[in-house]
């Protein structure tokens, strides 16, 4: 099977080595730059240069037309006629070209409209000469053969001149833009709509440095056909044979809904042929639905973990969030930023994004601001512990729904600074709940954690206290807001979690450290957890604590292996996996926390509700006591004060 690589080879002969090719590009670029700077930018000079080039071209064509008509033995009589007519005919053509805008248009951009202008100008002059031939005495006009030859040659030469400038500019721009960037030859996996759109984008923008070579697909109806001039091969397994022949060094997966098993196979094939593997997120994940090569991303561990897709009641979520003012705190964080992505997709009237860290907020703002609904964002640097500042946000934006994800979450850090943890995770929540009630917020959702269950850490205890605060606020006199808390366990890829740690270890060349061969953990992907949080927000009536089902446990060593492979290395050969042994108190398997005695099912199979959680009996007194805890002074005193409010808390006292 031969591979049609003409599209991907680029317009220069392949035997030109990269240096010669590069030098040629630079020379062309230099010439075009000289023209642009010294001639193109001066209208009179530019006009004169074009007049000269077109004049010479058209004069030559007129001369040649006679020679061809008379087989290069033009009789003297016609040679004299040619001499008489040369200047008037060329002048007429130049005037017409000028009136059809051919002196104004940029020479190196030659499209259909320009071609039309050239054809009409030349047609008009030829028509005039024909009229002269029919209407005049024998020798006053050129013969019909000369007129035809002159017309065809004029159109061909002017078009060829313009087209060659266009090609030269495209080459030089391509060389300029990816100077130093190695050319990547791409095999597109999947010849469906997404693959087709990607190929079109790549072919249109050669400056991306990515050159599509062929498609590969398993569909027998597509195999053997071609899309945008690129052949479709298949089945997928043929890639191992085809890729080296076509010098493929990048695979881009465009398959809609490919199973994790299929993705794993493709990544493995990519590894075998030494190609990196990228994936285009599905249309539903792309906010604009537009397929562009910049949207591709490396295949991530999350793609391979085989999480069952979460079925959400999207209509209910849209009813809750559509056309509402929604406030997200901690909007720059792992959970908060995903909340912003998913909430914006529900078309809120306004999305108020609050975070105290400028860079985190800036990143999510940059990601979303370019989308269709970017104008509805209100990113604000605000510290939620700053009472007057956060009140200002409520006064100005009047949020209707609040998702509170701002928190300090690192367990060991918070252990050393309990006052800070209490202030940020609990007292700030108490302040926000007060404002929510006061400003008539409809729903307030606290992002909690399973570390709040029988807490053993300051972090867990402060989140438990935040949950209790919510319940106290629910019971506060005159409150109309529905306060809900959602607990869940580890999410994949959040800052400081195992995935960034493995990534760092792989980037450093290993080893990747795993505590035990059999170690398993429950994980959710961030989009999965946040989708369920939004679903939970539609369920509660107020005062409930919900728990998300974490799905199937993941074997940590398997995850480490897959991440090494995704980075293009071989586990144990290129990167070592080091077993470090269990640390004191660390468990091999996490216990499932979904105990039917304490949890009840809800309308959603992956969301449970904590039974009999009524919160503090005397809400006002409880909140008062909470505010006094922070005044308790040093670390052990605060921990003990927290224990009085959360009797199930077992503090670590050093
Ligand atoms: N990451 C997980 O695995 C996970 C799992 C379950 C629950 N949670 C909970 O979700 C919440 C958010 O976690 P995350 O992983 O997104 O953390 P993160 O550290 O990625 O994000 C927290 C964000 O809150 C911001 N923030 C902190 N204090 C603030 C303040 N006073 N004012 C304004 N902004 C503030 C931070 O700047 C940060 O951008 C935490 O309560 C955490 O316990 C996280």
CATH architecture of the largest domain: 3-Layer(aba) Sandwich
- Number of folding domains? 3
Q: Regions with pLDDT < 50 over 5+ consecutive residues?
A: 1-18
> Biggest β-sheet, characterized?
9 strands, mixed
Mean pLDDT: 84
| Residues in helices, as a percent range | 40-55%
CATH H-level superfamily of the largest domain: NAD(P)-binding Rossmann-like Domain
Structural class: alpha/beta
CATH class descriptor of the largest domain:
Alpha Beta
The CATH topology of the largest domain = Rossmann fold
What is the alpha-carbon Rg in Å?
A: 35 Å
Supply the number of helical segments. 22
Largest sheet: spatial strand order: 10-9-8-11-12-13-18-22-21
Shape: elongated
Ligand kinds: nicotinamide-adenine-dinucleotide
Number of strand segments: 22
Instruction: Work out the strand percent.
Output: 5-15%
| End-to-end Cα distance | 72 Å
Notes on the protein architecture:
This protein has 654 residues and is an alpha/beta fold. The protein folds into three domains: 164 residues, no CATH class; 116 residues, NAD(P)-binding Rossmann-like Domain (Rossmann fold, 3-Layer(aba) Sandwich), CATH 3.40.50; 273 residues, Rossmann fold. The chain is built from 22 helices and 22 strands. Strands 10-9-8-11-12-13-18-22-21 form a nine-stranded mixed sheet, sandwiched between helices. It has a seven-stranded mixed sheet with strand order 3-4-2-1-5-6-7, with helices on both faces. A hairpin with a 2-residue loop joins strand 3 and strand 4. Helix 8 runs parallel beside helix 9 and helix 16 packs parallel to helix 17. The protein is elongated and about 120 Å long. The site of nicotinamide-adenine-dinucleotide has 30 residues, from helix 12, strand 9, helix 16 and strand 12. Nicotinamide-adenine-dinucleotide binds next to helix 12, strand 9, helix 16 and strand 12.
């Amino acid at each position: 099977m031969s591979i049609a690589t003409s599209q991907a080879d680029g317009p220069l002969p392949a035997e030109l080595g990269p240096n010669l090719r590069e030098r040629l590009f630079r020379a062309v670029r230099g010439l075009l730059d000289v023209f642009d700077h010294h001639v193109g930018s001066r209208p009179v000079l530019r006009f004169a240069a074009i007049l000269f080039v077109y004049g010479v071209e058209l004069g030559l064509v007129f001369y040649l037309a006679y020679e061809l008509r008379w087989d290069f033995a033009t009789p003297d009589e016609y040679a004299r006629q040619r001499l008489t007519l040369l200047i008037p005919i060329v002048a007429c053509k130049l005037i017409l070209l000028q009136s059809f805008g051919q002196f104004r248009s940029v020479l190196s951009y030659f499209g259909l409209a320009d071609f039309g202008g050239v054809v009409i100008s030349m047609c008009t002059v030829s028509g005039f000469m024909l009229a002269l031939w029919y209407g005049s005495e024998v020798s006053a006009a050129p013969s019909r053969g000369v007129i035809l030859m002159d017309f065809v040659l004029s159109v061909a030469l002017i078009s060829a001149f313009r087209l060659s400038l266009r090609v030269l500019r495209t080459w030089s721009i391509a060389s300029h833009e990816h100077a130093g960037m190695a050319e990547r030859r791409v095999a597109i996996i999947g010849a469906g709509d997404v693959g087709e759109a990607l190929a079109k984008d790549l072919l249109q923008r050669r400056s991306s440095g990515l050159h599509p070579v062929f498609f590969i697909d398993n569909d027998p109806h597509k195999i053997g056909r071609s899309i945008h001039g690129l052949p479709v091969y298949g089945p997928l397994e043929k890639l191992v044979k085809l890729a080296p022949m076509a010098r493929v060094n990048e695979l881009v997966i465009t398959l809609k809904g490919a199973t994790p098993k299929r993705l794993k196979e493709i990544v493995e094939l990519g590894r075998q042929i030494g190609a990196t593997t990228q994936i285009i997120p599905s249309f539903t994940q792309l906010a604009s639905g537009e397929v562009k090569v910049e949207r591709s991303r490396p295949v991530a561990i999350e793609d391979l973990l085989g999480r069952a897709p979460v079925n959400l009641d999207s209509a209910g979520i849209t009813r809750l969030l559509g056309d509402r003012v929604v406030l997200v705190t901690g909007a720059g964080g792992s959970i908060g930023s995903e909340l912003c992505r998913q909430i914006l997709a529900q078309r809120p009237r306004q999305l108020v994004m609050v975070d105290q860290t400028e860079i985190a907020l800036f990143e999510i703002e940059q990601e979303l601001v370019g989308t269709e609904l970017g104008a509805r964002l209100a990113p604000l640097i605000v510290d939620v512990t700053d009472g007057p500042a956060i009140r200002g946000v409520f006064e100005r934006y009047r949020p209707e729904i609040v998702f509170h994800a701002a928190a300090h979450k690192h367990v060991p850090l918070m252990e050393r600074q309990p006052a800070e943890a209490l202030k940020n995770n609990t007292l700030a929540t108490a302040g926000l709940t007060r404002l929510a009630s006061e400003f008539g917020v409809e729903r307030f959702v606290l992002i909690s954690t399973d570390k709040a269950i029988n807490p053993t850490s300051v972090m867990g205890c402060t989140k438990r206290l935040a949950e209790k605060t919510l319940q106290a606020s629910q019971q506060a006199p005159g409150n109309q807001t529905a306060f809900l808390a959602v607990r869940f366990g580890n999410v994949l890829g959040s800052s400081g979690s195992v995935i960034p740690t493995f990534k760092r270890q792989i980037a450093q060349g290993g080893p990747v450290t795993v505590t035990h061969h059999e170690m398993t953990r429950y994980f959710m992907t961030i989009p999965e957890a946040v989708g369920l949080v939004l679903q939970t927000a539609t369920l509660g009536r107020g005062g409930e604590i919900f728990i998300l089902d974490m799905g199937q446990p993941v074997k940590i060593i398997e995850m480490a292996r897959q991440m090494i492979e995704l980075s293009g290395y071989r586990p144990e050969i290129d990167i070592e996996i080091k077993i470090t042994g269990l640390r004191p108190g660390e468990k091999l398997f996490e216990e499932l926390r979904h105990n039917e005695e304490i949890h009840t099912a809800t309308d959603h199979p992956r969301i449970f509700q904590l039974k009999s959680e009524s919160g503090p009996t005397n809400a006002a007194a409880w909140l008062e006591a909470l505010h006094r805890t922070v005044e308790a002074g040093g670390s052990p005193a605060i921990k003990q004060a927290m224990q009085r409010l959360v009797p199930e808390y077992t503090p670590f006292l050093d």
